[in-house]
Design goal:
Helix content: 25-40%
CATH topology of the largest domain: Hsp33 domain
Strand order of the largest sheet: 7-6-3-4-5-13
CATH superfamily of the largest domain: Hsp33 domain
Distance between the termini: 44 Å
CATH architecture of the largest domain: 3-Layer(bab) Sandwich
Strand content: 25-35%
Order of helices and strands: EEHHEEEHEEHEEHEEHEEHHEEH
Length: 316
Amino acid sequence: MPDKIIRATGETAEIRFVLVDATDAANTVAGYHSAHAFARMMLGETIVSSLILASGLKTNGTVQVKFQFSGDFSVATADATPMGLVRGMIPAEDVRSIGDFEPLLSPQLMTVRKLNDKGIPVAEGIVEMPSENIGPSTAYYLLQSEQTKSAVGIKAKANPEGTRLEFCGGFLVEAFPKADEKTLAIMEQVVRTMPPIENYHRPGQGLDLDAMLSDLAGPFKYAVHREIVVQPFCPCSESGVMKAMTGLPREELEEIVIKKETTELHCDYCRKRYLATPEQVRNLLERMDASQAARDESPEDGDAATDSGEVPPEAD
């Protein structure tokens, strides 16, 4: 069965449900990073957290989630959209250093950035992680940064060899602002008595989200509004990599041209390999010079541009 997200609400109760099975997507993304065992599970759970939070976006956009630790493991991050597109990343040095062992780590910060459909940040929240577990930290973020009462369960489990996730998913149950105390008390009791997520694992078929939703709703009737397929996706491109190279010191770019060496770059998320030839870097430098010249020739503040009440935009 393909990975999917189920979104539902109570028919009369002021509650929202989001259930995620991201097993195949998490395995695909973890494969990009050659992540094993703990690293694979941590990356998978971070992916589920990002998908859960992205489901709350009111418009198209992206949610970027980052969990930071101290100790033998430093960071896991994932980006997701409301339509189920997701990517994730853990540093290669973390994968190499911990191998197949569970590291010693101390939770530090959870950062959530929301971007609009043009990739422009519109909000950011940072909280101290209450534990090293992704689910409770996600619920804590919702309470502290968005004043949302919720319960979050997230779990990934690797096979004995650590080479593949047997399952990776989770749930969110969230109270709307108008939810009454009786509804909150019932939902708290339901969540406390929920079976563990691994009970919904069906070998070779992912997680049984329908059964999970039925149990999670408890005595409340619910309506499923949407089911969305989860897909690993990375928007990296050659043009984006070249644009990122403009952030390098000019001396490094000029050295590439002088030495006539082709530079190899990798996307941090999908690990796709890109090559930047000396000719491409030379063209990049020429465009940077042209852009700087255009800025130098633009009117000063208070000059002709202010006559219309507008300031001309900077060149890209």
